[in-house]
Amino acid sequence: MKRRSFLVAAALAALPGMALAHGPSRQKISLTTEVAAAPEEVWATIGNFQDMSWHPAVHSSTGEGGNNIDATRLLVLGQEGGPTIAEVLYKYDAAKMTYSYRITDVAVEVLPVTNYSSHLTVTPRDGGGSKIEWKGAFYRGYPNNDPPPELNDEAAIAAVTGVYQAGLDALVAKFGAPGS
Amino acid sequence: MLWSRNSVRRGLDLVAGLLIAALPAHADMAYVTCQNGDALSVFDLDQGVEVARWSLPGQPAGIAVSDDAVFTVAPMAKAVRRHDPMTGEVLTEAVLDGGPTGIALDITHGHLFVSDWYNARIWVLDSTDLTVLQELSVGSAPAGLDVSEDGRLLASADRDANQVSFFDADSLSLLGRVTVGERPYGLRFHKDGRLFVGNVGTNDISVINPAVLQVVGTIPVGERPYGVGFSGNLGFATNQYANTLSVFDATTLEPIKEIDTNEYPEGIDTTSDGKIVIANWFDNTIQIIDPTTQDITATLETADGPRAFGRFIRP
């Protein structure tokens, strides 16, 4: 997996225009969940751009710049030596409990998307607890016409939805579902 | 069977004419392509309401309008369509083999220009029957197109070539190519003839004087400017990642203000009385901006994923 990712990255680097190109139609998804804990408590866990250990797919996260604009992080997925995703923070507002980041480098075999940006927001829930919203905007993994099925719009949507759902499910497990 | 089709169309035109006459005033209409929803939201901007939602397969983004037609580009269907502006009925459809993306109408010559994102060319179509008359060579990944208000020039934002190509709209010959910032996408001619193009890679706008084919100024704007519009001497740029609308002086090229918008603002155009209308892709809204107060005066819901990539308001 690692070698394959490296080869793809090298191939893209050899074609500078390719890494910037994208499909014809930008996709978006928005997932929300509700938890019992107060927004401040949830924010203390997910509001640190340098620590994504709350997501079950993330093995480690290392980066620079804290929560400042242009801060970077490298996520290692699964286990030591696993596939990686490089990301950069481009919006951060602690008062509004929201931040936005984008992927600067990922192999399409790891996440079949390009030009990916993501937004995490925590808001108070009516009746107590918190609402967590995770939104993503991206193009499919295949930049040219007539994509293969594993790199088409549907594959991109399914992959990102899976990542967000796993993360939000973990937060519900950690903070509990709001009282009924 | 042409004669019968023509007579049917003439009959429809007559009905459409009666409908237009029945409207209280000449309302500005906004035709907002909604890419994720396979739809087009039609707004009566005078009343501030969505009056129709056309089903439009193929993930439409590009848009152009005239008095008697609305033109859309649906890249997934590789289709360019000519619609009745009142009913949305598809009057003509052309399938273009490639990646049809941006679109601009030259009313003077009856030409419809469509950029091919994948094959570095522009198709020149007959704006009535949508047959391909000619192809123009441009740089890699052409996106936004515009025709100058005097009808003499066509400009193409060649995104991956970091340049704008200029053509004589009369002879369709290449006048020249001008290097701009990184990854130009959306562009618009000012009434005075200058071209303003948003560079999504360098977060600025290049201002070009086509008479000398040179960049005469650069305006810093917010992150990922995708569209440019004007109201009088004010210029506006939609900043997709910043969720803002940059306001600048189109003469001095000085930045004036950033207005917070909904998320992923993209398409932008101007009403006949000078209001600015933008389409916000993520939030499924259009917003109307009063150029005098530079405030948002209305936010209206659209179908899913509004792009409105082109001139989308029909006065």
UniProtKB/TrEMBL annotation, chain A:
Signal sequence annotation: 1-21
Organismal lineage: Bacteria, Pseudomonadati, Pseudomonadota, Alphaproteobacteria, Rhodobacterales
UniProt-recorded name of the protein: SRPBCC family protein
Keyword hit for Transmembrane: no
Classification via SUPFAM superfamilies: Bet v1-like (SSF55961)
Database matches in Gene3D superfamilies: 3.30.530.20
Superkingdom of the source species: Bacteria
Alphabetically ordered keywords of this record: Signal
Organism from which the protein derives: Donghicola mangrovi
Coiled-coil segments on the chain, per record: none
From TrEMBL, chain B:
SUPFAM superfamilies according to UniProt: C-terminal (heme d1) domain of cytochrome cd1-nitrite reductase
Residues spanning the membrane: none
One Pfam family recorded for the sequence: NHL
Top-rank taxon, per record: Bacteria
Keywords carried by this UniProt record: Repeat, Signal
Signal sequence bounds: 1-27
The keyword Cell membrane is annotated on this UniProt entry: no
Keyword ATP-binding: no
InterPro entries in the cross-refs: Haem_d1_sf, Host-pathogen_enzymatic-act, NHL_repeat, WD40/YVTN_repeat-like_dom_sf, YVTN_b-propeller_repeat
PANTHER family linked to this entry: DIHYDRO-HEME D1 DEHYDROGENASE (PTHR47197:SF3), PROTEIN NIRF (PTHR47197)
Entry-linked NCBIfam families: beta_rpt_yvtn
Annotated protein name in UniProt: YncE family protein
Species whose genome carries this gene: Donghicola mangrovi
